[in-house]
Structure formats: structure tokens, C-alpha cells
């Protein structure tokens, strides 16, 4: 009997050993594998970031580069700085961020990016395994952006119908209507003379734009609370910034709660909308002609004869449809808002270019500013007669690219860097760093200058862009499905807003009100980008807005947040 406690102890010890040995063994096997991948690349003299250690990989090195950036700066700047300082010849480099993230093959070379998305068909189609983590709070699961190739392909074909040229033109009157509400809000700000943060005002506007274009409805987010818009905006505010580099942020339990709550609200809102439209379809098949994304999803589900449709939407399909709509609401408002803010910023700081865009607008829409909206509504094709405006949008997207791009590396698939190294992609996230590619002196003449002309010159001109060096919407089969929509929205917004308002960045004033000792510019730019879903201007772009031509007569020194 005396042996009994011993055998219990042995049992518990063995059980505990099995319980812990498994995960610990797994961890060390993965650690060894991750570190050996880098060692093997170092031995082959491939471009590997400096500062690698067996225990931490490149995590501490990356942290030291991020610490040298201004507060909250987007982590992509850190990747860009490493590329510029150490790998400008190769245009690519490896970085080992396991276990927080993965092995990265960072790409800033256009020709390597072209190989990835166009030449090497097996690389351009699948997204890396870490992407669903980013999207989890946004869409609550797999979506068009993250789907593996096989599932993605038929759905991409289906959703493409919502982005045809003719359909986009048919949406111009709705875009103009929401832009007029934005203009009214800007006018109120101008009348108050207050310092405003342009980004949140613009985010609510682009929510309304996406409501009109994707959901075929008015969300009214510019006028007040809307469950879908507000919960999505909150979801992004609570999104973990710089997730690839800061594991401690995962321990924020308030974030877990808010994500759960917002997610429930959004699912409920979209679910009810889907059910309502489903019932309308069943009652009248003619409703199924709409090309809005929400209707396209339902059309894919409906049988030929709508009368034979089941009484209720299949729950699995309903959950799938909700995820896709959440993706379109997110992708549809976030990057566009950032692009509007940066375009207005660049015009405010480049008065000659502002004058030229207004000359183009006068030529197309006439001198009567108030008539712009009705002209856009009655003649949507006028948006296609704005080459200089289009060049300004392209140049803004080059200088302040709002969205990134990443692909899943594949076994036995290599990429050849700018000096001829063959770089394996297996186990790696192939990560394009647009912020560096778009501003590298290796690929661009006068890279930091705002020069819309480079989009208007003929091939052979020194400013003519190098093939594949500009990729705000990415290239290849998984490029942005909505780039035509974005360009049209931007032309409508600029035609209406730039004709009526002047903007002045107010960072100096903001900094006086919020003194801080840290670095406040990135490569001389105060309105640098931070991660808030897409890349947005830091401090939400403090500025003042004036009715066109009245700015010099104003002398405003007080601060009234709007
Ligand atoms: C300035 C605005 C925008 C920019 C710069 C932008 C950029 C991008 C980029 C770079 C990708 C490819 C990502 C990758 O390769 O991993 C992408 C994909 C995507 N974008 Fe956009 N986007 C914008 C606006 C929009 C809008 C307005 C919508 C929806 C209405 C949208 C919906 C999507 C979707 C659904 C995908 C995934 C496509 C697929 O995998 O088939 N985007 N976007």
C-alpha cells in the first residue's frame, strides 16, 4: 500500500510531462526550423536582414528600427528603411519574425513584384497564412480577400459583375449625392472656422459612398449613428496596430470584448438586410437585376425559378454572405478615405497644381460651381474627361499608398532579385512594401516630388514611370477588384470638393497644442502614415477648411474640435 502515493505521483508526473513535452517539443522544433531557414539563406549569401539571433530571430532588430521611427508610424516604414539602407541593390530581403509572425521575403523591386504577380502564376494567387488573423475582427472569417485560389476564383468572377465600367458610371449620381452631404459638412466646418480632423469626417463620408455603391442603400453615416458604419469604424479603431511586430497588444481584453460586440451587431444588421432582400426576390424575380454586391451574392444563391427558393436562406450561406459584405464595407471605405485626405493635403501644399486642376474642372464643368453636382448626375461620362485630375489621383496613390500586398510563398518557387540571386519563397510571406517601391530613387525620378505630369508624358520621357513600379491596386489576378470604382469616386469627389474649398494643414498648430519630445516627421513628412486598418494620416489630419478664396481673409487662432 505504501507504493500507492508513489504510483499516483508517477502517473501525474508522466501525464504532466506528456502534456507539456508535446507543446514544448513542438515549439522548439518550429523554432529550429524557422532559424535554420534563415541560416541556410545566409550561407547561400542571399539578402538577409542584419541583427538575427537564434532566440529572437529578427524581432529585436525590427523593434530597434521601429523605435527609431516617429510615434505610431506605420511598420511598413521600418521594412522600407531596412530595404533602403541595406538592400537597395537586390530590391528584396529576408526577415525572420517567427513566432510573432512568419518568415518574410520583403520585396521593393518592381521587377520582382512583376515576377510574383504576373510571370509566376503559382505565386500570385494565394494569400499568406497570417492574413486571416488581420481580417478576423473585420470579417469574422474567410472572405474574397483571403480565400484560397480554388474557392476564390468563381467568387471573383461573380463579384466582377458589380464593377463593370457601365455599372460604375451608373453609380455617379449616387456618388455625387453623398459628396454633396460631405460638402455641406465641410461648409459647416468652414463657417465655424474650427480646426478639424479631416480623416474621421471623411471616413463617415466614404461609409456613405460604399453604402450607395455596394449595398444599394443610404447608410446616413454622415448625418448620425448607423449600426453597420459605426460598428465597422469602431472595429477598426480597436484593431491591433502593427500586429506583426507587437505581441503584447494581444493581451488587451477590452479589445477582445469590443471586437466580439461589434461583430455581433454587424452580423445582425447585415443578416436582417439579406433576409429582407431575399424575401423581396422570392416575391418578385425582377428585383434580381441589381448589380450591387449585396444583390450579386443573393443572385448567386437564388435558383433560376425564384418561386422554388427555400423559405429561408441557408444559415451557412447567410454567414458566408455576411462575411463578404463586411469585407466590401471595410475595403470600400477605408483606403478611399485616406486617399481623399492625402489628395487634399497634396493640393493644399502645391498651389500651382491646385490651380491647374481647377482650370481642368472649369473647362469640363463650366464656371458655375453650384452646377457641378447636377452636371455629374445628368452626364456621368464627364468623369472620363479629367486626365489631369486622374494624374493627381495616381500621383497621390504613389506617394501615400494606403493598402499593402502579400502573397503566400510556395515550395520550389524562386524569385530572382535585381542582382540575379535566386531567392526561394517556400515558407515565406512575400511582402510588397509599396511605401519604399513607390519612393525609391532607384525606380523613380524625383521620387518625393508631387509630379502629376509623370502620368501624362509619353514613353521615352525621363518622368515616364517604369513598368510595374506603381502598384497601389496591385497587379495580376488578385488585384483590387474595385480600382475602376475608386478612380471614378475620386474624380467625383475632387470635382465637387476642390472647386468649392481650400484646405490648410494645421500640424504646427496641433503640435503647439500637444507638445511632445519625440520625432514628429518621417523623411521630412509631418503627415506620415500610421496603421488604422489601411494607412491613414497621423493625428487624423488636423487642418482648417475655407470656402474657396476666403482663406487669406480669415484669422483663426482658437481651437474648437469638430
Ligand atoms: C484607394 C482605394 C483602394 C486601394 C488603394 C486598394 C488596394 C487594394 C490592393 C493593393 C489589393 C490587393 C491586395 C493584395 O495583393 O494582397 C486590393 C484587393 C481588394 N480590394 Fe481594394 N483598394 C481600394 C479600394 C477598394 C474598394 C473601394 C473596394 C470595394 C468596393 C475594394 C475591394 C477589394 C477587394 C474585395 C479585394 C480582394 C480582391 C481579390 O482577392 O480578388 N478595394 N485592394
From TrEMBL:
Keyword Thylakoid among UniProt keywords: no
One Pfam family from the record: p450
Cofactor: heme
Sequence intervals crossing the membrane: 12-32
Pathway the protein takes part in: Secondary metabolite biosynthesis
SUPFAM superfamilies xrefs: Cytochrome P450
Domain of life: Eukaryota
Species this protein is from: Stereocaulon virgatum
Record's keyword terms, sorted: Heme, Iron, Membrane, Metal-binding, Monooxygenase, Oxidoreductase, Transmembrane, Transmembrane helix
Protein name: Cytochrome P450
